[in-house]
Input
Amino acid sequence: MNYYYSIDGTEVVGPHSLDDLKSEFFSGSLLPTTQVCAEGTETWQTLATLVNPSPKQVAQSHPIPQQVHRHQTTHPSTVQARKNQYGVKVLTTKDRAFGGKFDPEKLESALNSYASEGWTVAGCDSAEFPGFLGARSELITVMHRTGGCMKKYKILTQKDRFFGGKFDPEKLESAINSYVPEGWQVRAVTTASFPGFGSSREEMIVVLEKEV
Output
């Protein structure tokens, strides 16, 4: 099991394995009062409850005045509030990454750019809006920041090598399953209409996601 930890109550670090935390503790880098939280839970506890050191080990690893220990102690609710900060970002073709025109490669690049900042895809859909030459279809991707693991994204459309430009449900299934061994999972699926030569074309868009 992996754990997050916070020393000062303002920055959450991790996740790290228990062995790594023990190593940091016995090297003197982390205090017995350091707050830790198991990945996937919301319960915070002191590192000492996990490591369970003897008084002699604590003294040898942390020859620090008692007042410093009191200064480092952080109330779990303070750390939890920081960890649970939540934000939402709405991504459309008006975003700087697109230049006003949809392109699956630009969408993939945009998602991964924001993912590197901690954003993850919450959902994806399309909608039609009035335009000068008729209705226009807009792809809308909602991203949110939850404090979880960093993600990476891949966009699968009919331009993918599996399709040859023509949609086929069996090819879509085969394409998705071919990415599964690499850790990819389906995060969102939608369709959108885009201008073509003489008429609009309907494009299937599959958002794949995996942990970094």
About this structure: Strands lie at 2-6, 13-17, 35-38, 44-46, 87-91, 120-129, 136-145, 151-156, 185-195, 200-211.
